[in-house]
Write a structure and sequence with these properties.
Elements (H helix, E strand, L loop, with lengths): L2 E5 L4 H13 L2 E6 L2 H13 L6 E5 L5 H14 L5 E4 L17 H16 L1 H4 L6 E5 L21 H22 L6 E6 L6 H4 L5 H10 L3 H14 L3 E6 L2 E2 L9 H17 L3
Helix pairs in contact: 1-9, 3-4, 4-6, 6-10
Bound molecules: NADP nicotinamide-adenine-dinucleotide phosphate.
NADP nicotinamide-adenine-dinucleotide phosphate binds next to helix 1 and helix 7.
């Protein structure tokens, strides 16, 4: 039985993975902000007869203080973490700032994953074959907006969502570069188009929503290649789009940019009063 923590495990891809791992016999810790979704996850786990293997941890991961609270709790309560899976995301149509003064997508889709990766590293390393699985739009084109990392000057919904993935790609590269222990598999995974509640909500126009439904895969199909990744991937960094491995020589995985972002991120975290 593996112990797996899934952020955003109460809906969409994260929920699909949580239920599939529960069916496989694993112990699942789901982190999400809404207790309505969390309670629904626990009820579905009970229907599978997996109440004793399902945990819901409420946290608003867009806040640094909440990530720190979660890290402390998990490090205290879990003896070894086999996998840490990142699915938490929220798309805002307009510029939205957290109570800590950070742009929401930057804080939730990128910074939370950064904090949890390093904060739970020790507990992951207690497992035999630990994995961090960062589900994002890995390997896509697009530049990092170094002058406006949080899009405080100019905000465009689609661009900001894609930008979060550029940051996650670099975060994976930096994590593997900085990992002197060398035990963790850090996997960047791009599921391509999936019919999740979050993605469908991105398209208020019924025609575009219908097109996305035609184009996107159902969650049950989208999770199949993900389930096998932890066995397939090498120790260190790897990246995939659906079943296809992505070359780490591609521009999104630039090593200098990765270290630059790592340094900037530390400064941002230090500057936030929590
Ligand atoms: N779907 C696609 O086509 C697609 C394509 C490429 C990449 N991806 C990536 O796949 C991952 C999963 O996406 P999805 O489409 O499955 O998302 P989704 O359906 O929108 O689900 C998002 C999850 O994040 C949680 N969440 C939202 N705000 C939160 C907060 N402040 N704190 C903690 N949890 C929070 C939600 O639960 P609560 O509301 O209860 O908090 C929910 O469980 C994302 O990283 C996304 O970038 C998806």
């Amino acid at each position: 039985m593996k112990t797996i923590l899934i952020t955003g495990g109460s809906n969409g891809l994260g929920k699909g993975l949580a239920m599939a791992y529960l069916k496989r016999g694993d112990q699942i810790l789901v982190v999400a902000s809404s207790t309505t979704h969390g309670t629904a996850f626990l009820q579905e786990a009970a229907q599978l007869g997996a109440t004793d293997r399902a945990v819901y941890l409420q946290a608003d991961l867009s806040l640094i203080v909440e990530n720190r609270r979660l890290i402390e709790k998990v490090n205290k309560q879990v003896s070894a973490l086999d996998a840490l899976i990142f699915c938490a995301t929220k798309h805002s149509a307009v510029y939205t700032e957290t109570a800590e003064g950070l742009e929401l997508t930057f804080a939730l889709d990128y910074l939370s994953r950064f904090l949890l990766s390093y904060g739970l590293k020790g507990t992951l390393e207690k497992a035999a074959h630990p994995v961090i699985l960062n589900i994002c739009g890995s390997g896509m084109k697009g530049e990092v907006d170094w002058d406006d990392l949080q899009h405080k000057k100019q905000f465009a919904k689609q661009k900001v969502m894609m930008h979060g993935s550029r940051l996650n790609d670099l975060s994976g590269v930096a994590f593997a570069q900085n990992d002197s222990v060398g035990k963790i598999k850090y996997i960047l995974y791009n599921p391509w188009a999936v019919q999740t509640p979050g993605m469908l909500a991105m398209f208020p126009n019924p025609l575009l929503k219908g097109l996305y439904k035609l184009m996107g895969k159902p969650v049950k199909k989208a999770i199949l290649p993900i389930m096998h990744l932890p066995d397939r991937a090498p120790v260190g960094l790897s990246a995939y789009r659906e079943n296809k491995p992505l070359a780490l020589s591609l521009p999104p995985y630039n090593k200098e940019n990765a270290q630059k972002l790592y340094q900037i991120t530390h400064k941002i975290v230090e500057s936030v009063q929590v």
